[in-house]
Amino acid sequence: MLGILYFSATGNSLYIAKKLRESLGGELRYIPSYTGDCSEFDNVILVTPIHSYGLPKFVFDFLPRMNKNKELIIVQNYGGMVGGADYYAYSYCKNHGLNIRSVFVLKMPESFTTTFTVPKFYIKSTLKKADGAIDKVISDIKNEKFSIPKQKKTKEKKYLTNMSNWNKIAKSFCVSEDCVRCGKCVNVCPVKNISIENNKVVFSDKCIACLGCYHRCPQKAIRYKNHKKKDRYFNPNVDENEIGKDLK
């Protein structure tokens, strides 16, 4: 049985993972709540966004504990720049003795948009092109046309520095008067970094910069550095309630 593991905050990786499952079969597992090592699967596909030219914290922490006998394919998606993140993921897996067979990279709409706006027409165009790119990845996997990243200069040092500082990002979050204390931000945070205390939304110091809370607040009340931006992003082809769920 194929295991498809994913991490997603705004739906892009979940969308890709579901498309893979529709064509290849298998079961979906949400990495933040998955405690195994993939021993129950024959082969594994891991679907992940690129964060700061590297891996999200949950993926970074998960890979070293994965069963080294399982064939692994990684499908990364990015909105801005790859910055050698594909080769970094490949070398990181090799350094931990994993049987990494391929790394595919797909462009999806940018979600790290706390300080700038992506035009809606560009988001629609990117999503439209993504379907063809995902189909190409599925075809390559079926035909075992694997993609091994060529050795290249990565932004590893910058990535590791950024990751060590992700916990500080939440200090720049605040909530506007539009907040209704619905608790959704508390529920969507994968690291339980948000709480409501004395009728106030409180951000702690465990943030991993996924921006799930920022984009998925129904009132658009969460602000970054008090910017009064109203545009948010969530993949329109995904049922938001499925994020964080395992699908068998």
Give a short summary of the structure.
The chain is 29% helix and 19% strand. The strands form 3 sheets. It has a 5-stranded parallel sheet, with helices on both faces. A two-stranded antiparallel sheet has the order 6-9.
What does this structure look like?
With 248 residues, the chain is of the alpha/beta class. It has seven helices and nine strands, in the order E-H-E-E-H-E-H-E-H-H-E-H-E-E-H-E. The protein has a five-stranded parallel beta sheet with strand order 2-1-3-4-5, with helices on both faces. Strands 6-9 form a two-stranded antiparallel sheet. Strands 7-8 form a two-stranded antiparallel ribbon. Helix 1 (12-24) packs parallel to helix 4. It is globular and about 55 Å long. The chain starts with a strand and ends in a 24-residue tail after the last strand. The model has no long low-confidence stretch (mean pLDDT 96).
| Order of strands in the sheet with most strands | 2-1-3-4-5
Task: State the major sheet.
Answer: 5 strands, parallel
Q: How many DSSP E strands?
A: 9
- Overall mean pLDDT: 96
Helix % is: 25-40%
How many DSSP H or I helices?
Answer: 7
Question: What distance lies between the first and last C-alpha atoms, to the nearest angstrom?
Answer: 11 Å
Shape: globular
Give the C-alpha Rg.
Answer: 18 Å
Alpha-beta classification: alpha/beta
SSE run: EHEEHEHEHHEHEEHE
Low-confidence stretches: none
